[in-house]
From TrEMBL:
InterPro entries: Glutamate_decarboxylase, PyrdxlP-dep_de-COase, PyrdxlP-dep_Trfase, PyrdxlP-dep_Trfase_major. One of its GO terms (molecular function) is aromatic-L-amino-acid decarboxylase activity. It is an enzyme of class 4 (lyase). This is Glutamate decarboxylase. One of its GO terms (cellular component) is cytosol. Belongs to the group II decarboxylase family. PANTHER family: GLUTAMATE DECARBOXYLASE. It catalyses: L-glutamate + H(+) = 4-aminobutanoate + CO2. Pfam families: Pyridoxal_deC (PF00282). One of its GO terms (biological process) is L-glutamate catabolic process. Keywords: Decarboxylase, Lyase, Pyridoxal phosphate. The keyword Ubl conjugation does not apply. Its cofactor is pyridoxal 5'-phosphate.
Length: 457
């Protein structure tokens, strides 16, 4: 345990009673704002360098002028739409823009909401799937007590939370060495009349690979023709929703597929906005059951709301609209293309380094991943490499793959806006130096398994 209090350690003698401050209790007396600022500032200054963080998908840089908008709007409560109608209108515009980008058949009439991030958006998408299934089953006079949902074993943890929190049986399609993403055959083997929906990933968190949404949709179309089972798809496009429309416009994954009923995306990932904001859009308004929408009047007016959270700042929504205006489609293409080019440059270089074997090269998301070649060495592993890189400031996660491949450990690098080719070459040089050091060891590095996994979202 740390000591129970800390010294203020200022240049000027503290006032009486301010010589130290308790760590785990509110102090009896306050302090000057400059002193409080210095204490907090010095504490967070010890965090990792955001520019060297290759673990997170989350945006770590925006233009300085965007910071002005942030400062002007973080005090507005997004839920209070009667008091801030122009901000509410901006939120609606963003929903319409995304619906159009993802080929909704009625982008100006459909429904969608902003959220605190993709995790909340996934929860809302899952709730809508469950409620639509319940409504349909009740009309058919069938029981509703055993719903299930189908997704990959490599799904983001929020979907496991959804299944746990909302009493839905999770059915996993396990990935294998020959099948690194969920495939149509695995989906068809898992679904039945109690399946509320299939969740596909446009950008698997573990590897950065896209799942074959169109192929899965086609397989479910054929299943419906054969036995009449109509199972909807939700696309978790947390990262890919802001990549595929610009870098892979020919890829069919969105509302062009009639079976896709809802899509979520993280505005604070490749939407290029500071955390935290997410979005979910339904194909058509009727795909969101009306009885999930609440209407509140105590903030003024009569406003509909569908969310797990309530009060939150407006700033990130406003910054999302700023990005739409600032970049346009051409700008988003340029930004994402640079990130992809850096990812593919690095992945190609890393593939030539003796110990490594690629899992993904950045052709889908600007994300690539690799494993240590089998039998290369017994003296070190990817966890050792991750820890050594961290001493140089680089945050690169190492972690095991999901069940059926849990014996395979991989590393993953996420390239985001602001990570330049100069930084890429610096990382590559540091990586090669670190590998050379580890290869020079004449005995295995001792391990404590409790500290091996370093997975980041």
């Amino acid at each position: 345990m740390p000591p129970g209090e800390f010294s203020l350690n200022t240049l000027y003698p503290p006032s009486k009673g301010e010589e130290s401050v308790p760590l785990f209790q509110m102090p009896n007396q306050g302090m000057l704002p400059e002193m409080a600022y210095k204490k907090v500032h010095n504490k967070v200054a010890l965090d990792g360098n955001a520019y060297l963080n290759l673990a997170t998908f989350v945006t770590t840089w925006m233009e300085p002028i965007a910071g002005r908008l942030y400062a002007e709007s973080f005090n507005k409560n997004l839920i209070d739409k009667d008091a801030y109608p122009r901000t509410a209108e901006i939120e609606k515009r963003c929903v319409r823009i995304l619906a159009d980008l993802w080929h909704s058949p009625s982008p100006h009439e459909t429904i969608g909401v902003s959220t605190t991030g993709s995790s909340e958006a996934c929860m809302l998408g899952g709730l809508a799937l469950k409620r639509r299934w319940q409504i349909k089953r009740r009309k058919q006079g069938k029981p509703i007590d055993h719903p299930n949902i189908v997704f990959s074993s490599a799904v983001q943890v929020v979907w496991k939370k959804f299944a746990n929190y909302w009493d839905v049986e999770p059915r996993y399609v396990n990935i294998t060495p020959d099948r690194l993403t969920m495939d149509p055959e695995g989906v068809l083997a898992a679904v039945d009349e109690n399946t509320i929906g299939v969740v596909t990933n446009l950008g698997v968190t573990y590897t950065g690979l896209y799942e074959p949404v169109a192929a899965i949709s086609n397989a479910l179309d054929e299943l419906q023709i054969r036995i009449g089972l109509d199972i909807p798809i939700h696309v978790d496009a947390a990262s890919g929703g802001f990549i595929a429309p610009f870098l892979q416009p020919e890829l069919v994954w969105d509302f062009q597929l009639a079976r896709v009923k809802s899509i979520n995306v993280s505005g604070h990932k490749y939407g290029l906005v500071y955390p935290g904001v997410g979005w979910i859009v339904w194909r058509e308004a009727e795909d969101l059951p009306e009885d999930l929408i609440f209407r509140v009047s105590y903030l003024g007016g009569n406003m509909p709301t569908f969310a797990l959270s309530f009060s939150r700042p407006s700033a990130q929504v406003i910054l999302q609209y700023y990005n739409f205006l600032r970049l346009g489609k051409a700008g988003y293409y340029e930004v994402q293309k640079v990130s992809q080019s850096v990812a593919q440059y690095l992945s190609k270089a890393i593939q030539t380094i003796g110990p490594f074997e690629l899992f993904a090269d950045g052709s889908d998301l600007p994300v690539f991943s690799w494993r240590l070649r089998e039998g290369y060495t017994s003296n070190w592993n990817l966890y050792d490499l991750s820890r050594r890189l961290r001493t140089l400031g680089w945050q690169v996660p190492a972690y095991p793959l999901p069940p059926d491949m849990e014996n395979v450990t991989i590393m993953r690098v996420v390239i985001r806006n602001g990570f330049t080719m100069e930084l890429a070459n610096l990382f590559l040089r540091n990586l090669m130096e670190t590998v050379s050091f580890l290869d020079s060891l004449d005995r295995p590095i001792p391990h404590d398994l409790r500290y091996d996994i370093s997975f980041h979202h």
